[in-house]
Design brief:
This protein is mainly α. It contains three helices and no strands.
Length: about 55
C-alpha cells in the first residue's frame, strides 16, 4: 500500500537518486497504519475476524 500512498514524484526521485525522504515516508507510513487499523475494525464490526499488520 505504501507505493500507492507515496506520490509519483517521490517514487521517481527514489528510483533515480536512491535518496529516501524519511520524513515523507514516516508520515505516509503512519497514515497507512491508521488506515489498516480502521479497516480491521470495520471488518470486525461486520462480524468477521481481522487484524491489521501495522506497527501499532
Amino acid at each position: 500500500m505504501i507505493e500507492i500512498v507515496l506520490g509519483p514524484s517521490y517514487i521517481f526521485r527514489l528510483s533515480k537518486e536512491n535518496i529516501l525522504d524519511y520524513s515523507e515516508f514516516s508520515e505516509k507510513q503512519h497514515k497507512v497504519d491508521e488506515l489498516a487499523e480502521w479497516t480491521a475494525d470495520f471488518i470486525i464490526s461486520r462480524g468477521y475476524k481481522a487484524f491489521a499488520q501495522s506497527v501499532e
